[in-house]
Amino acid sequence: MDNLEKSDYNLLKSVWPILFIVIVCALLAVRYSMKIDESSSSPGAGMGLVYGILSLALIVILSGYRIRKSLLRTPIGSLHAWAQSHVYMGVILIVLVFLHSGFRTGGMLSGLLLALFLLVIASGIIGAILYKVVPLSLSKYGRHVMTMEVIGARIEKLLAEADKQAENRSAIFQETYSKHIRPSLASQQVNWGYIFIEEDEVIKTCKAKMESLQQDTPADEVYGMSLVGAIYAEKERLAYKWAMLNSLRVWLYFHVPLTMAMLVALSFHLLGSFYY
Amino acid sequence: MPGVNLKLKTLSGLSSIYLFADENQADLAAALGDCEVSEYQPEEMICREGEYDENCHVILSGMVRVGLPRGSGGRGSRIILSDGEVFGEIAAMSGAPRTADIIAMKPSIILNISRSSMFSLLDKFGSIKKKMDALYRERALRSQLMKIPMFSGVSESFVDGLVDRVQMGSYAKGDVIFNEGDDADAFYLIRYGFVKVSQNEDGKEKALAYLKEGHCFGEMALLNEGEKRMATISAINRVEVIKIAVEDFSNLLSSYPGIRRNLESAAGQREDRNVQISQDANLANTLRTTIEDGVISTKSLLIMDTTKCVQCDTCVEACAALHNGKSRLVRIGAKINSFIFIPTSCRNCEDPTCMAQCPTGAITRDSNGEIYHKDFCIGCGGCAGNCPFGNITISELDEDTDKGIIKRIYALMFDRGSEKGESQYKDLGRGPGGSMAKGREADAVMRKRKKKRKAVKCDMCRGFSYMGCVYNCPTGAARRVDPTEFFSDLTSVG
Q1: CATH classification number, B5-146, choose in 3.40.50.1820, 3.40.50.150, 3.10.450.50, 2.60.120.10
Q2: From the CA of B17, how many Å to the nearest CA of chain A?
Q3: A220 and A166 share a domain?
Q4: Fewest CB atoms within 10 Å of the CB: A55, A158, B142, B449?
Q5: Is this complex scored with an ipTM above 0.90?
């Protein structure tokens, strides 16, 4: 029954890479602690320099992921393997960089480089979490997989459908609709709060709001209001999917430019190292 | 490998071949004019068991041996065929994979009759049809019965007796083989295709399992005398069955008590299985959708795990990059359970309806069962209209597509559009249904432009060492699977 059960967090599959990372990091730390002297804690000499060279090599490989992503016709390893290596090597890089710097921030350029490196790592961790959480959240409900374009088009149609339902209704109905529901249906803004909650919470909130609105609705229009409520709930459900998918796109606008900035700072750092 | 292929210009001595003996030789020579003749050296493989090859062969001279089906446990003797004898008619008539290896024993000259030529021969010549039907019946039955594990202990003389008495049945997609509550009159073995087992529950049909080639059904009511059919059996795709009458089935059980024990054990497992399905709503739902969406009766299925898919569309871009800018993959569609999603991509059906009406024979199936279009496709849209899943598109090819090698290397190295897959095609429609109307509309436009029109579909990245969509999925969500293996938990006990 394995194939038909959810494969969300299969621990066994990820144990070996994690074990590998732990062993590598432990070996590096042991090697570092065995020889704490001037040469080993100095970034420019001895083991410090070795850690620096290893860090540079890893950064080059990690940056290669972006190049691999655009070489879709070139058989240089599956993209999945590259993506996994990108994450695991990134973790090892954190240890290497700190061992290289000797846990010091150094001068202004080194400090800036370290700060950018930490930002890249932080955005990378956020990305890794989003890559796990977003697909899981999106797969829970609904039978159809929709692209962002399809979601956008559907949201536009929902507003017209709700307007049609509200036509020729009583003044109270119209007022309730235009004051409490239509603004949400017409809103084009991404509700970023949705990425921190589950889809069923969104639906619960919609239901609660509609129940309170139905109390003020004339008895003969309660059914009409429930139809509008169903449209409103669907819009919010789609808005949830939209926010989730958008988070993956927006994240790249942080991670990639930060990486670029870090690579520029790294270039100056290398030039400086050679110069001095 | 076949030897030199000779175009069949003149056919002398056709009258000496049993199959053609009773027909007018001139008419026959005309009907066989497009067929080819191949030469084979001793020990050269002509057909391989399990491969798809829809030619029927006649030995003009030489000798071949028919290897035993691998499932038969080495029982029985090899069959030797020589001058004038026919082989390959089972696969040609049913469209199923080859049921045995055929190897040349002496230098042999073989007449290859394509499936379409063979059916036209059967239409035109009554005596050939009669002989072929008899041959097909005898060989298909024998080969099938010998393959079924249940018959592994049964003597050859018993099987020979059965071959004379059993009936063969053929059912189209959706046909009911028997209904729940019917009288039990026979035991069935599936020779080809897939069937659905279902029961009526509060007026609604509830799928319990599907069964495939080599499985049997109908034994539960026969084992308990007087019982009615406990479930409805219907064809998921084109199905061929072997029907053993109740008297023969009783004889079989009384002669071979081991078979009764095995069937009783299998029946017990099936009942347990039915209970499990009725208690597990998710499993029941997955079973229902896999059958309704035509997932089971396919050979290779692209699936996406929605718990991993980040909807980055790299799979679509990769498909376009590997296929002249035209992606054959559309990442929309339905989920078959809470996390398996089937995008729009060729499934390589067991019984491909897309191949049925191709006027040029451009859409074909290779020995592995993969369906693809040859270069001489004229883009008529017949295949797209016949595909029940809308997985074939009719596209127009831009004139500048045929780039020289220098231009192609330049594009590969420097032109991001080429690598990322900017479109060199324009969609003219995707089957089924609307594609034909759209196609006709586009036809007029294209006659003016003098552009090429072609059917495009997923060809499993023929010519590449990897499948673009799977290889370029960053999260491992995209996978190509064999549905009968991947969904094996949904089959019933064979």
Answers
A1: 2.60.120.10
A2: 52
A3: yes
A4: B449
A5: no
